[in-house]
Model the fold of this input.
Amino acid sequence: MSNSTMLKGKTAVITGSNSGIGLGVAWELARAGADVVLNSFTDRDEDHAIATRIAEETGVSARYIQADMSKGDDCRALIEKAGACDILVNNAGIQHVAPIDEFPVEKWDAIIAINMNSAFHTTAVALPMMRKAGWGRVVNIASAHGLTASPFKAAYIAAKHGVVGMTKTVALETAREHITANAICPGYVLTPLVEAQIPDTARKYDMSEEEVTQKVILERQPSKEFATVEQIGGTTVFLCSDAAAQITGTTISVDGGWTAL
Done:
């Protein structure tokens, strides 16, 4: 079976997928033949245009559905509006950096809601669809910070650790079915957001962009190279393949050796 038809007939819903990792995952799933449902909290012409472009270039069905992942009802409605969900990729996330005693309560609540609670709500609605279809894949985009910690990122780290734990529970609850649940734990990934931060960070540290990338941004990533959104997408496609049918309840690190330290 060619890669372009491997997932033909499957519908993938990817949260937070109008840019960055989520969009990269959507492209790779579409290239593998899956119909894709993109999502974010905005509802702009350019959001729908991304779906149109994916459909035109890969030949699959691609749609964009607006839903605010900070709201449980929106999360559940997204899956219902999709109509089918064979592959669920929980990717939506935000970040805020501050010491715990100064961490704004509203930022804590938003990060826990978007980064962790949304995965609970979407999974709760998707699992009955997967069971009815007799097949399913839940892929949660966690983080190296789902396995280890850094200072000043309490909410993000709590949420990502929570996602890893929830992934294991979903795997155990579906272990006798043709449904798997796994978490991908990226290190630093070169997304447009990260790329845009490099010049400002270089100025802040009075370093060249190359130097600040190696010594500051990628300080904890032993490979000293960013992962790419295509690599995260490729890992997702692998987890959806027959080769990964007995991989469930675990984490796959795409972090250049970060968690080996």
Remarks:
- The longest helix spans residues 105-133.
- The domain at 11-188+228-260 is CATH 3.40.50.720 (Rossmann fold).
- The beta strands are 11-14, 35-40, 62-66, 87-90, 136-141, 179-186, 251-254.
